[in-house]
Design brief:
Elements (H helix, E strand, L loop, with lengths): L5 E6 L6 H4 L1 E6 L7 E11 L1 H9 L14 E9 L11 E4 L14 E5 L3 E3 L6 H19 L8 E5 L4 H12 L3 E6 L4 H7 L3 E4 L5 H8 L4 E6 L2 H8 L3 E9 L12 H6 L3 E4 L7 H16 L7 E6 L3 H9 L6 E5 L2
Parallel strand pairs: 8-9, 8-11, 9-10, 11-12, 12-13, 14-15
Antiparallel strand pairs: 1-2, 3-4, 3-6, 3-15, 4-5, 5-7
Helix pairs in contact: 2-10, 3-4, 3-9
């Protein structure tokens, strides 16, 4: 970057609705620090986590102003000390750009740790790269975070959502039998992604229907609906099974049936993708990248916006209008 150059960013300095707090502005172009790369952003993605961060303002106590959005894709145009110059010109997908720091992908350029800018295979577009990020890494850890699942039965709750769609594909690619928990309208799509059965979570008798769908029992749950799993799913789980839970939006304070879990040695492992250890995060990113390179991940784009429409993109995710990835072109 030349001296005095600037970039366009969307930012907010207080919590609230997108239209009330987000503004488009210019700021000096960043310089990559040691261990960082400078990325010319091509596509930014808006995920539910980005909306929650803005509406709650949960990181504004640490930063005066935040440039949102964790996921995206672009081209490395400069590198900091300790990063090989051979990376310049590399097409990359970005992970957790705004987690624990103020500068996300709602920006025409950003400096980010080299480890969080992962090379895109030549077969993948910038849109593909922007889709995966947090949803695919969450799904990978939810399915494979404790090792192989080949020959096992994996239940993916919230299977029709951003994370769930990847969870179904990752479990299928790993050799598992996949049970999807979703609305019936998504059963055909989920079958194409690899689910052997889709169970309707809205109909009565969920516990019985889960047992019927998995007569040999369920070994692992990639779980977006912990309260539902604890209330209805335990009879279908095998002894020593694992519930890897990353959300419980229907009830954020579920009742834990401790005795039932204790005597079956059912392990509950809540996790946040942003709080994984370095080795866990590296495994998830490498695993997602391998599947992307092998052409084993399909992406579901629900909406596309231009950079000047960032507010509308955030509003679309916040109001539940987008079924799939919400992508914003950056020009």
């Amino acid at each position: 970057m030349s001296a005095g150059s600037s970039i366009r960013v969307w930012s907010y300095a207080k919590a609230g609705a997108a239209r009330d707090v987000m503004q488009l502005e210019r700021m000096p172009a960043p310089e990559p620090a040691a261990g960082e790369v400078l990325v010319d952003t091509k596509v930014s993605a808006v995920n539910p986590t980005d909306v929650k961060r803005r509406t709650t303002g949960r990181e504004l106590g640490r930063f005066a102003r935040i440039i949102p959005n964790n996921d995206g894709a672009g081209i490395i145009v400069a590198v900091g000390e300790g990063v090989s110059g051979e990376r310049i010109g590399e097409h990359v997908w970005l992970f957790a750009a705004q987690a624990g720091r103020p500068h996300g992908t709602a920006s025409s350029m950003l400096a980010i740790s080299s480890t969080l800018a992962i090379e895109l295979p030549k077969s993948a577009s910038f849109a593909d790269g922007a889709c995966i990020g947090v949803p695919a890494a969450t799904a990978w850890h939810g399915v494979l975070g404790d090792g192989a699942v080949a020959g096992k039965t994996v239940l993916v709750t919230g299977a029709g959502g951003r994370v769930g769609r990847y969870g179904v594909q990752i479990a299928k690619a790993a050799g598992a039998k996949v049970i999807a928990l979703s609305r019936p309208a998504k059963s055909e799509e989920l079958a194409r992604l690899g689910a052997s059965t889709t169970v309707d979570y809205t109909a009565p008798g969920l516990a019985d229907r889960l047992q019927a769908a998995a007569p040999d029992g369920i070994d692992r749950v990639c779980d977006a609906a912990l309260a539902l799993t604890l209330e209805h799913g335990l009879p279908a789980l095998n002894p020593r099974s694992v519930i890897a839970a990353y959300a419980s939006d229907l009830n954020p304070a579920p009742v834990l049936p401790f005795g039932q879990m204790l005597y079956a040695n059912i392990a509950l492992k809540p996790f946040s993708i942003f709080a994984l250890s370095d080795s866990q995060r590296a495994a998830a990113l490498a695993g997602v990248s391998e599947l992307l390179s092998a052409g084993k991940l399909r992406h579901h784009v629900g909406a596309r916006f231009e950079f000047d429409q960032m507010v509308e993109a955030h509003e679309a995710v916040e109001t539940g209008q987008v079924d799939g990835a919400c992508l914003v072109g950056v020009r």
